[in-house]
Amino acid sequence: MSSGTGTRGGLRAEGLRFGLVVSRFNSFITDRLLESALDTLRAAGAADAALEIVHVPGSFEIPLAAKELARTGRVNAIVCIGCVLRGETTHYDYVCTESARGIMLAQMDTGVPMVFCVLTCDTLEQAIDRAGLKGGNKGAEAALAAIEVADWSRKLAAIQAGRGKSRRRR
Ligand code: INI
What we know:
51% of the residues lie in helices and 17% in strands. The protein has helices spanning 27-43, 62-71, 91-110, 124-130, 138-169, and strands at residues 18-23, 51-56, 77-85, 114-121.
């Protein structure tokens, strides 16, 4: 049980705008994640014109594209989609780490919420399970998270703008 007031994001997407930054690497997986994210956003009420997709070569390139998209001021939240599969070398670790860190830095720098839909899997089977088979589809989950954070971010920005006005009146 909790008491007091709270700000909670809703799960409706009318009037919200979304960016989707998608890696082409392992596109067999990322295409499925993207389709599921788009279906979920549309089902929640997002207009097609409110969905902006940016394609990048690999997950390593997601953070900068997300940051640049955020800076346009055209989106309320960004879904970052990629799939990194472990290989024989340590390349996997660098791509995963920098993609996650870069996305976090990009959202903290810009103030535009970004959700992490970069699968980091040991095997292709694990990725397939998370892109529509056994484990559901992480693209849909990420889209719901994006709607929620976009909504509360917009609500908190409105509160801050209201405070700014009342301070200026004093
Ligand atoms: N990028 C991925 O998104 N997934 C991978 O599994 C992957 N592997 O295995 O190499 C990958 N590498 C490419 C990387 O993201 C960059 O595009 C590349 O290093 C150029 O900067």
